[in-house]
Amino acid sequence: MTTTPSPEPEPAPPAPADRPAPADDGAEILRMEGVRKTFPGVVALDGVDFDLRRGEVHVLLGENGAGKSTLIKMLSGAHRPDGGRVLVDGSPVRIQGAQDAERLGIATIYQEFNLVPDLSVAENIFLGRQPRRFGIVNRTKMDEQAAELLARVGVDVSPRTRIRDLGIARLQMVEIAKALSLNARVLIMDEPTAVLTTEEVDKLFRIVRALRADGVGVVFITHHLEEIAALGDRVTVLRDGRSVTQVPAATDQDELVRLMVGRSIEQQYPRERPASGDDGGSDGEPLLKVRGLGRGGSFQDVDFDVHAGEVVGLAGLVGAGRTEVVRALFGADPYDTGTVEVAGVPLPRHDVVAAMDAGIGLVPEDRKGQGLVLDASVQENLGLVTLRGATRAGLVDRAGQRRAAERIAEQLAVRMAGLDQQVRTLSGGNQQKIVIGKWLLADSKVLILDEPTRGIDVGAKVEIYQLINELTASGHAVLMISSDLPEVLGMSDRVLVMAQGRIAGQLTAREATQDAVMALAVKDVKGVEGSTDGAVEGVGVNEKEGSRGH
């Protein structure tokens, strides 16, 4: 589909010295009118309208693929519109690159940070703009200015610390400090809370509110609906590349979902439980059987079963040992004691290939870093696990691989241009389908799902839940870890709660409540070496953490 570009806007972006003085509180800083953008075979934006006022948080809401990323890339200079216009302080502008955006006072913080790992915090903040004295970088002044910015965002880190030595939350604060160093009037934040703990989210919100009070206009993208009313002022909803409506941030979550997906989701967690699901467990021998699993300092005496057709949720606080246990039973990490059986067959220790051959598949928390080869195609990613079996005399049966990939992609309803499309260009929900699909191609009967819906929009989450239903209906066994408490309670037939490296208890679907999970998660924790600080790693055990991810 082709579009007819609108006439080129006349003025180029003003230089910093020419930038108009901030208007009165509430004055419009930014406006997009009828913006259009097409890519080969895809209409990404189709006449989008959006505006931002000084001192407000304007939430941009939509499913993956709705056009949010394309819109913010236009404002950051990564893409240019095919039609429509962008105005700053009422004047049309052309944003043709990052420098144009910077001159206009527009800063963007992406999910994947734009920082140089081997440079210091200060060097990253002032990259390309280092203060100089007699033509030489004035490191003392640079460090002093960086320290002031870091103090403003409330992060206690030395300006000389290397970026690679910082955790996710601190990296995000460095990005905000960098934006402040640019005197940003418009701050765009793309899924900033996706990998933060509750405490880190609270700190981030305090900083955003302070920026709002200083008159900064914030464009905030999130899939966590409860964050909208907590932080936002207005919401613009995108659907299929169009701006469908603008509503107050206090709008009911169910209404936001309806506006976003174009339909009402009557049941957020549509688990189709087996007949015995309410009472926990299933008849017959388990598909996955773990007995006495232990490793010094990490976990001990771990016993549990997962039957065919069953979803078992694994819950616990940070440090409870859940991730260590599932990595051990998959063969990725060693263990000292105990056994793992699949369909009655014992597995050798620390042997991923044996685990895969036995029918265990792991969908990791970090799908982009560990579950996918982002620059490879859909077909290549779907065939990662089965490539060895598709090779004969050193040659890969590419035709057979393609037929199999087509079958799985169709079965999972992957939205794509074709099997040759790069996986990195897919939405989060479709990427997750690819990760799950490669294990289905390998005929895995036991699937370990670690944070299966993290960073996925509401509509795509329901698709993943329906896929879980299809898996269990066809006889698969599912072991699920999630930081979204309602997700675990809503989708699990049984919930196992870990505390201090042990299984503290088991809850049936009928017994599993937030309070019941909390009681087991903190069991015998007080005073034990290595006890947690209360932050939640897997299933959220306090209301605020548990609600995140809706």
Could you characterize what this model shows?
- This protein has a six-stranded mixed beta sheet, sandwiched between helices.
- Among the domains are: 27-105 and 184-261, Rossmann fold (3-Layer(aba) Sandwich); 283-359 and 445-547, Rossmann fold, CATH 3.40.50.
- By secondary structure, it is α/β, with parallel strands linked by helices.
- Residues 1-24 and 525-550 have low confidence and may be disordered.
- It contains 18 helices and 24 strands.
- One of its GO terms (cellular component) is plasma membrane.
- It is a peripheral membrane protein.
- Keywords: ATP-binding, Cell membrane, Membrane, Nucleotide-binding, Repeat, Translocase, Transport.
- Residues 30-265, 282-525 form the ABC transporter domain.
Name the average pLDDT.
84
- CA-to-CA gap between the ends? 35 Å
Strand content: 15-25%
Low-confidence stretches: 1-24, 525-550
Sheet with the most strands? 6 strands, mixed
Query: Considering the protein shown, what is the CATH homologous superfamily of the domain at 283-359 and 445-547?
Result: P-loop containing nucleotide triphosphate hydrolases
Form type: globular
Question: Class by helix and strand content?
Answer: alpha/beta
How many beta-strand runs?
Answer: 24
Under CATH at level 1, the class of the domain at 283-359 and 445-547 stands as: Alpha Beta
**Order of strands, widest sheet:** 6-9-10-3-11-12
Question: What are the SSEs and their pairings?
Answer:
Layout: E1 28-39, E2 42-53, E3 57-61, H1 68-76, E4 83-88, E5 91-93, H2 98-103, E6 106-109, H3 121-125, E7 132-133, E8 136-137, H4 139-152, H5 168-181, E9 186-190, H6 198-213, E10 217-221, H7 226-231, E11 234-239, E12 242-248, H8 253-261, E13 288-295, E14 299-306, E15 311-316, H9 322-329, E16 337-342, E17 345-346, H10 352-358, E18 360-363, H11 367-371, H12 378-382, E19 391-392, E20 395-396, H13 398-411, H14 428-441, E21 446-450, H15 458-473, E22 477-481, H16 485-491, E23 494-499, E24 502-508, H17 514-521, H18 543-547
